[in-house]
C-alpha cells in the first residue's frame, strides 16, 4: 500500500491505475503513518539499528540489544 501510494502520487498523479476501497463504506484506503499523531517524511529521523551498529563495531549495539 505504501508503494502504491508513492506511485499514485509521483508516477500517475492524474489517473491512478487502481482504487483500493474499504469493503464496509467503499471509501478509498490510504496508508497513514502515525506515532500518536500523523507524521510525514519530514517528521522522521533515520537512526541505525542494532544490526548496523554491531556490523560497524559500535558499542551502542550492546545497549540496544538489552532494551529489546
Task: Describe, in plain words, how this protein is organized in 3D.
The two termini are 28 Å apart. Helix content is 34%, strand content 0%. 0% of the residues are buried. It is mainly α. The protein contains 3 helices and no strands. The model has no long low-confidence stretch (mean pLDDT 83).
Largest sheet at a glance?
A: none
Total beta-strand segments? 0
Query: What separation lies between the terminal Cα atoms?
Result: 28 Å
Tell me the radius of gyration: 18 Å
Provide the succession of SSEs.
HHH
* Principal-axis shape: elongated
Helical fraction: 25-40%
User: Structural class from helices and strands?
Assistant: mainly alpha
Mean pLDDT: 83
Beta percentage is under 5%
Individual helix count: 3
Low-pLDDT windows of residues: none
Note the topology:
Elements: H1 2-10, H2 50-55, H3 60-67
